[in-house]
Write the structure tokens for this entry.
Amino acid sequence: MQTEHLAQRIARLLERVRLSAEKSQRAPEGIRVLAVSKTRDAEEVRAAAALGLRDFGENYVQEGLAKIEALAGLDLCWHFIGPIQSNKTRALAEHFAWVHSVDRLKIAQRLSAQRPAQLPDLQVCLQVNISGEDSKSGVDPSELLALATAVAQLPRLQLRGLMAIPAPADTLARQREPFARLRDALVALQATLPTLDTLSMGMSGDLEAAIAEGATIVRVGTDLFGPRATPRGG
Ligand SMILES: *Cc1c(COP(=O)(O)O)cnc(C)c1O
């Protein structure tokens, strides 16, 4: 992709975020744009970084590691947002700053044990199965409090909040429902865990709805980098 197109897409996206924030009387600085760079090569990430983006999200461990290594000289913040297999936790603990998709205690325990002591705490969100979608990812809301209190006690992790990938919906009102449930779940947890501050929700197709319901991180791939060539990671 040509850099001027990327610059336009970034500008358009930031304007969308700004307008959505304004509508909800929120400060745009309170919404972090996570550029989802899955299937994009390191040079596309480098171009986006040169245009001011700093947070990048990856779904596949090997693919992410290759880009992290290729771009090690840039001061980027790497987020893992994909499904986590337990044999991949060491790579996540050693190379990423954030993991958004923790949905069981065993994974959190491994990340905690494997986070190198010289690195800052790994920033963690719990993925919640908020719309009961058939996807097997995400903790059931009924088990969230138990998981969150257990994860919050683990060393070398900092539990920051919640993440969800709701089933697609076609109207703004319908899109807002699951995001509102995730926000309510965060508010409920804050009674026990008052330092939680993150709602990772909203993608290219529904970021207005997510921002209206309090998203603090929106994860955007298609609207920044264009459509992905393969359905991989959809
Ligand atoms: C791919 C992906 C995104 C970005 O989706 P777009 O629709 O391309 O913006 C966000 N979050 C997760 C978890 C993803 O897998």
About this structure: The longest helix spans residues 3-23. The chain has a mean pLDDT of 95. Strands lie at 32-36, 55-58, 77-80, 98-102, 122-127, 157-163, 198-200, 217-220.
